[in-house]
Amino acid sequence: MRVALAGNPNCGKTTLFNALTGSSRYVGNWPGVTVEKIEGRLKSNKNIVITDLPGIYSLTPRSEDETVSRNFLLFEHPDLIINIVDASRLERNFYLTAQLAETGIPMIVAFNMTDIVRKNGDFIDTKELSHRIGAPIIEISALKEEGIPELLNAVETAAEIKPPRPPQYSASIEKAIQKIEASDISFPTAESRRGFAVKILERDREILQSLSVAPKTAAEAEKITAELERESGSDIGALLANERYGFISRILDGCYTKKEKKTTVSDKIDRIVTDRLLSIPIFASIMFLVYFISVTTVGAFLTDWTNDVFFGEWILPAAQSGLESLGTADWLVSLIVDGIIGGVGTVLGFLPQLFVLFLFLSFLEDCGYMARAAFIMHRFFKRFGLSGKSFIPLLISSGCGVPGIMATKTIENEKSRRLTIITTTFIPCGAKLPVIALIGGAVMGGAWWTAPAIYFIGIAAVAVSSIILKKTKPFEGAESPFVMELPDYHWPSPKGILLHVWERCRSFVIKAGTVIFIACAVIWFLSGFGFTEDGFEMTNIEESLLADAGNLIAPIFRPVGFGDWKAAAATVTGLVAKENIVGTLGVLLTKSEATESDVGLWQAVASLFPSKSAAFAFLVFNILCAPCFAAIGAVRRQMNSRTWTLFAVAWQTLLAYAVALMIFQFGNLADGEPFTAASGAAIAVLVGLLYALLRSPRWEEKFFRRRKK
Ligand code: GDP
Ligand code: MG
Question: Could you tell me the pTM of the whole model?
Fold first, then answer.
């Protein structure tokens, strides 16, 4: 049996899905977390397949993820719908229920969030309501896992459930529906006939197409709709919406009273947190603290210990002497000690920082603050043509860019969606954190501002890119409105938070054990072998293959401050996975300076860069430039165009280069270095950027129009 979970965004579908199937899908406090349908099997009965769908408000989709849900419900004939209703927002949620009742599919209504209903003191006569809509209603709390056995029981006995009674419209509409039902359209099933007829009455083109309705019949249907509109003097969408709300209030009449809401603690917090003047400084301070604490203080302390004591004093010497006492070949000792422990070990050393960062971010998400952040950022983003909807992918990207890019599916406007795909990986993801921490710790002397600065540079890069690109034709245009319900603040469950953190840390560790592991072995090999006078053989690092390749590309990076081939090579390996930047430096530096002269990895890294501004330029370049291949692949899938993918990568890399150039060159001038051609180039870049930011939109068009005259 196939069961579909359908409901409004944020009503608890994924929480319920996890409770029913025992899986641990991402649950977020904002819409757009589930952007694809996800299947799972019931814990208690593996024959029952449950599909978690993206949230929808109605069966008329506006964005890609909503279309997924609509098409699943209408065309894939699930045997049962579990309609999850946020019972603390009954009227709004019933709008979808009324439409689901038309699909002719048996339905169980799950009243979720009953814990909140109880707390609010609302009154709901579930029994009478269930009778009125003709579908069983089960009260649950997906979060607190209440009512789940009852729901399971209802699902198991679903064979006895009949489709609910569809809403009755006024006589003229009913007559119009009947006419369409009686036409020669071949409806997939007898039960679904009414639902499809209503969609056709609503002028749903996609339905007409998928039912392959003949043009003549479609024209007749159009006549019926037009006739109805003329009679009532309003358009069909408004007409049906009105009728549906009428139906809902009739259904709820006497069964539901919402208690007059007092000003809750949530409202009081919101008054400050979303205040027009205070909201942005508060958001900035919170994010500052998050990055400061996790990367610079607590996390850094834990990481230092992991790197210096755990790996440096325990694992490395133990491995070295252990292997040597076993009589292991020198090259194998070097592979394991320099390559694997040096590379993978260095990357893993940053796990504590990552853990602390994810702990904070998950807390902010789960307690409800991040939903406010999207709302606050909407006011900020609106100025340069993005909406708060674009903030959600950015938020997700602070974990990993790939789901961040996928989350852009919820953005209806294609131009804004593209823009968000291009800019979302500017936000430092978990994999970039080790790079930030390494450079921050080794070169910036643990400066308190490094990590927060990178986060805000990421946001600034999003803003700057949006402002510049929105002034060009392929991106211009107004943004669609952003509607979002703010959930009440609540104390997150420790289990939920730890689950989030665990998921994210786990993928970091898995990556370290697979991709990074292999990459470090490859780097070890490339940096240990090379062509000498005696042919291809093991050689010292400066004559290795990697040194040759690195030296080839290093000149490109000389103007931005990291002309050392090791830094250049690390940047390139970062394309495979950003952790590789650290892994590569780990391998290369463990091999050379660090082990020989006992200066430690930190100093070895610092000695790669001529100045602090060079190291900072290296860091910023690696944060902003083309993301890893996995993310580029995600961009390719979401853009569905090679040209746009290339554009995205080129834009990111060029912007990264421009910013790094300015940081290094202006840093040099500030340090009292002489003025060079490169300093001139940096000034030119700054002027160019300022011009692109401040110019009036579409000058090209005016320019060309004038030329034509
Ligand atoms: P979806 O968008 O419908 O998949 O919703 P999610 O499952 O992602 O949940 C949205 C938010 O509602 C999360 O913060 C959940 O913790 C919260 N939530 C889900 N079910 C309940 C519930 O029964 N009670 C309360 N208080 N919160 C819930
Ligand atoms: Mg979901």
Answer: 0.79
